[in-house]
Amino acid sequence: MDLKERFLHYVSFDTQSNEASDTFPSTDKQLVLLRALHDEMIALGLTEVSMDKYGYVMGSIPATKGMEDRPVVGFISHVDTAPDMSGANVKPQIIENYDGKDIRLNESLMMTVADFPELSFYKGHTLITTDGTTLLGADDKAGVAEIMTMAEYFMTNPQIAHGKIRIGFTPDEEIGRGVDHFDVKQFGAQFAYTVDGGFEGELEYENFNAASAKLSIQGRNIHPGSAKGKMLNALQIACDLHEMLPVGMCPELTEEYEGFFHLIHLSGSVESAEMAYIIRDHSRELFEEKKRIISAAVSYLNTKIGEEVISLTLKDQYYNMKEQIAPYPELIERAKQAMKMAGVTPLVKPIRGGTDGARLSYMGLPCPNLFTGGMNFHGKYEYCSLTTMYKAMKTIIHLASLF
Q1: Which residues are recorded as binding Zn(2+) 2 (predicted)?
Q2: CA torsion sign, 319 to 324 to 325 to 329?
Q3: pLDDT tens, 192-220?
Q4: Three-state SS for 185?
Q5: 289 is catalytic
Q6: Would the pTM count as exceeding 0.85?
Q7: Binding site residues for Zn(2+), as ranges?
Q8: Is 173 a catalytic residue?
Q9: Is the link from the previous residue into 140 a cis peptide, with omega within 30 of 0?
Q10: Is 368 helix (H, G, I), strand (E, B) or coil?
Q11: Which domains, ranges and CATH numbers included, belong to the chain?
């Protein structure tokens, strides 16, 4: 299978994860693709191929003769797609030699250059889009396809020198559980790269520190005609709390290293309400300050009301991998070199999000992130450049050889 065929095959699997599930993986349908990848590794001749009870699939490309003493490098991608939009019955559309203009996804939906100006970069590329009814699954089946095509390349070209290469595929990355049970010792690599980025040339080794904040508000519903001094409107309390957070510190008004509070859920009635935020910042100091701000807002409102009607649960999710990558600058320099060998201009930038690599780095496996060629993840405007995907595949081939 070539890269295009692999990618189109993988996106035909519905692998959406589910945050509400208490199983691991969160959905059984992820296991269908993971088993297929396990069997494909075996068919390609990889060694040490395994799939454990959690669904993690691992395999090895053996070192070429005389290269057994080289450091073991790994490449990791996740198979699940985001809960934000359906990943079932994906109908990819292929645009050869893209003309740089607006793209019609279906009769009623356009993807415009005005809304997505980065499209202009891809003029002349072969693009793969959705049909506007589902996400595409480039996050991260583009990375999966690039890694597997790299594996086939090395297995069919044994004369190309390289050390031992480890491959790993994970479930549930999109809901923040991707490496909950990942066995770093079993994986056996000294260093690894997640292949889970977007724009051509992206090389990321800084990411947000991340926390979730869940709030439960207990109101008191009284007939509005006699409510004075008695009613506690949980929805109004939720609004008051949100207004106490710093103005403008939200995703739609921030960029680069700027952090935010992101309200991702609000529901309820006068009697009770639920809120959920994600809290992000690259700076650990500012990250901790944001947690103090929301905690102080809760404390202030409870004191003002005179009883604890708001309960807050704060949970750290992951931390900035930069602290763990900094001692190994060669990981970044080799990635830059590999990109240049593949005809790609390196674009070092912070991730305004997180990857499995962030958590793996704190588990003892330093793990920067590489581009895949996918864009507009998690929704109907998702697309990828097949042209860039080939460059991503060549980058990881060169990178593996540099080790």
Answers
A1: 139, 174, 378
A2: positive
A3: 999 999 999 999 999 999 999 999 999 99
A4: helix
A5: no
A6: yes
A7: 78, 139, 174, 196, 378
A8: yes
A9: yes
A10: coil
A11: 3-206+320-402 (3.40.630.10), 209-318 (3.30.70.360)
